Amino acid sequence: MTPLLGKFSQDFLAQCKDSRTFFETEGNSIYPDRPDLFYHLFEPPTPVSSTVPVFALSFLPTAPPSVQSATVIGWLPASAPGDSDEAGLNDFVDNPRFRELLHETIQSGLRDGIDDIQINGAIQTQQGWMHIHDDRNIPALGRIGDPDDILASVRVEEGKILAETYQAMPSYRLCTSDGVLQLTEGLAQRLREVLEARAAREA
Question: Rounded to whole angstroms, how far apart are CA atoms 16 and 26?
Answer without folding.
Answer: 13
